[in-house]
Amino acid sequence: MTTTLTYIKEWQQALQNEILHLKKYGSTKYTIKNGRLLSNDGSFSYYFDTAISLKIPVGASIRIEWGGMKQSGRVLSAEGKGIILQLEKSFGDLIEAASLFHDPWELLEQLIERLDDIKKSKQKRSRVKRLMDPSLETKHPEEKVKSNVHELVLRSKYNPVTFVWGPPGTGKTYTLARVASNKYFQNKSVLLLSHSNQAVDVLLAEISSFIEKKERFREGDVLRYGHSSELLADHVTLTTSQLIEKREPNLSSDRLSLLEERQKLKQDLASSFSKRDSHYLLELETKIARVLEKIRQKEIEFVKDALVVGTTLAKAASDPAIYEKEYDVVILDEASMAYVPQAGFAASLGKRIIICGDFKQLPPIASSRDTLVSKWLKEDIFHRTGIVSRVEEGRLHPQLFLLKEQRRMHPDISAFTNRYIYHSLVGDHESVWNSRNQIVEQAPFRGRASVLIDTSNMGTFSLNEKTSHSRFNIWQVLLAFQSIHEAYLSGVRSIGYVTPYRAQADLMNMLLEDLYQKELQTADIISATVHRFQGSERDVMVFDTVDSAPQVRAGMLLIGKESERLINVAITRTKGKFIHVSNQDFIRRHVYRGKTLRQLTDHQEDHHQGIRVREIGKWIQHQLPRLQWMHAKKLEKVFRDIDSARNSVVISLPHGAVLTEEWQIRLKNRRSRTKLFIISEDTWEPLQPDEWKQESLSFPFVIIDSQILWLGMPLEAVIGTLPPHIAVRLDSERAAEYLIEQFVGV
Q1: In this predicted structure, which of 152-161, 270-279, 511-520 has the lowest mean pLDDT?
Q2: DSSP string for 78-108
Q3: CB–CB of 523/489 below 8 Å?
Q4: pLDDT at position 254, please?
Q5: Does 271 score more than 70 pLDDT?
Q6: How many CB atoms lie within 10 A of CB 218?
Q7: Three-class SS state of 711
């Protein structure tokens, strides 16, 4: 049996290997501009403008590159759209533009230090051992259990380690909040931890609301420590900043006035830079640092006095206010996304620990391919402690508590995940039938909760982006956008779009920002990769799998080791309507039956949830002026666009394509100053192109004046379609330029 010291040794080596990988290959890159030297007395301080607010902690190590030079440094200040860096050497008085690189590998170093602390403490080592080798015997009195909440209260009272399996919508937050509140009522100290700020805020808000309803809330007893979201704004004294504002108004006022003064000075610096101003800015930074240190000391006092404290795993490992304190109960939420060493660290902080998560959702993320990194940083605590292996054998570990009823998804959606992902261990609460019907009855696809928009026989559009090699599919993203538009017009204001591929998510964001600016102000519409969407939910979810011909195999994100988890997350974000945009023909050809994606499309087909190409005219009811769908044989509009072209016509003609005489006449008779650019393996000399790129793409398109995109045109050049033949006209400069960059290279 593995000893605790062996666990810790392997964890530390895994973390060190990941740090080395990040230092060599990683780093998030930011563009910084207008660098001005503030001081050169021993070290060199520079002020840079940034396009966005960079959330890099003060004191963090960074690297900047300018021209051929590289240099390390640290952050002195990073608030608003400006950052002050301390560098080892001078780059001169002015730096027009540079690249800043930062990765939070320092957080991993801090975790290594905490593991060193555990080595030195017999009690902490014992807690880690209990976590990694959970007992097969439980001590709580099962005969006294009255409810889910009561069972978890009893388990966490009598057993040192309790694992909670909380599939989506099964009341995880509700249950954990009431267990934490119960401990609070007993005057027990509770530490709430998670990898994400949002998860901490959601749980803390639920606890606070419950205690307030019981009229037992005392100011300062329940505390959010660290960065918090607007979610807690209504809870007046829940965060340390709120308490500072109420109890130390002078400190709060000093901080605010100094920050305002700094902001004004930065604006002055942007227009007229002077040495006097630069020195005063550094003086201001010193004053701000002093006030922030006073505030920090007050915050430490608040943490010491609080009974329930919520913070992130990263904050807990880096701040002695948390890791030097002992708690009666530690609750680790979303544990399936935490590194195993983080779970071990969390267990060391408390007499009892509740580990809560869903090992059927996405695992932790690490970059290195090192063996120890894969073992300890790319798999969750449920797998590494043997909890999952027992589930796979058809039995639950004695220390595993399963929440069995989901209340989020309409049963027509959960029917798939309940059976194929959770092996019928999870069922539907009776309330989800009625509570989701209003969403189901809204467009598109009124009366249907689960729909597969099958893009088979609509063309061959799945390609790899030129730089990132991430896959994108312009046809499917337009169909997905249209479904969002139909839902919005029917009254839906909570809509999510997810895809496995970053390039496709970026393409949808481009369309939303370009075509839907006004609507985004009145609706909660988000486009993201599946990895970024875990933990969220929406009334309507659109899942776009992207893959189709001319790809010759399905992407590993959809068929690889973690594909079941990815697809599960994509589906289970949904409350009332799940729209799956996918090419069923491609999936049947390239994905075998045992894979989750194939099971999903087969399930939707078996339950008559598929929508075919011939039905497109039935569900597309509302045409946007800038996104119009029509029959590809109706040529009036495309010819009108070509005739009115002022600068350029770019046309893609796959190898062997045939153009009708009418098309050839229109292209040859274009305006005299309008350049014709042809992408084709064939020469097309009769069209007299101004430029020709000898390449055959898988689908034809026309781009006019880098603004208007026509897909499905010319029809004679289209591959892999069946009637009715559909064309789409998109008026989007950003999308047109994106495709020109991908296919023309300019």
Answers
A1: 270-279
A2: E-SSEEEEEESS---SEEEEEEEEE-THHHH
A3: no
A4: 84
A5: no
A6: 11
A7: strand
pLDDT of residue 337: 94
Residue 477, H or E segment: helix 474-489
Fold identical between 406-619 and 627-743? no
Residues 239 and 302: their CA atoms lie apart, in Å, by 10
Name the DSSP class of 61: E
> Residue 355 forms beta bridges with which residues?
163, 332
Of 156, 138, 154, nearest in space to 146 by CA: 154
Residues 574-606 have pLDDT tens digits of 999 999 999 999 999 999 999 999 999 999 999
Q: Do 284 and 261 contact (CB within 8 A), yes or no?
A: yes
* Residue 736, SS3 per DSSP: helix
3 state DSSP class of 591: coil
Q: For 27-102, which CATH class?
A: mainly beta
Going by C-beta distance under 8 Å and a sequence separation of 6 or more, which residues neighbour residue 36? Answer: 46, 47, 48, 93, 94, 95, 269, 273, 278
Q: Is the pLDDT of residue 2 over 90?
A: no
Token code pair at residue 354: 């509740």
Rg of the chain in Å (alpha carbons): 29
Tokens 């504002």 sit on residue: 245
Rounded CA separation 202/183 (Å): 18
User: What are 401's strand-pairing partners?
Assistant: 164
- Paired sense of beta strands 350-357 and 327-332, if any: parallel
**pLDDT digits over 348-364, tens only?**
999 999 999 999 999 99
- Spans of all domains in the chain: 27-102, 116-221+306-402, 247-298, 406-619, 627-743
Q: Give the pair of three-digit tokens for residue 471.
A: 């896959």
| C-alpha–C-alpha distance, residues 681 and 696, integer Å | 5
CATH code for the structural domain at 406-619: 3.40.50.300
Percent of the chain with pLDDT over 90: 74
The total of other beta-carbon atoms located within 10 Å of residue 271's CB is 6
Q: Are the CB atoms for 204 and 232 separated by under 8 Å?
A: yes
The domain 116-221+306-402: what is its CATH number? 3.40.50.300
> What is the rounded distance in angstroms from the CA atom of residue 523 to the CA atom of residue 491?
10
Q: Which amino acid is at 114?
A: R
pLDDT of residue 232: 85
Helix, strand or coil, per DSSP, at residue 392: helix
Query: Does domain 627-743 fall into CATH 3.30.870.10?
Result: yes
Q: Which two tokens stand for residue 85?
A: 């860096």
Q: Judging by DSSP bridges, how do beta strands 327-332 and 190-194 pair with one another? A: parallel
Instruction: Give yes or no for a contact between 114 and 345, defined as CB atoms under 8 angstroms apart.
Output: yes
Question: For the chain, what percentages of helix, strand and coil (3-state, to nearest 5) are there?
Answer: 45, 20, 35
The helix or strand, by DSSP H or E, that contains position 33, with its residue range, turns out to be strand 28-39
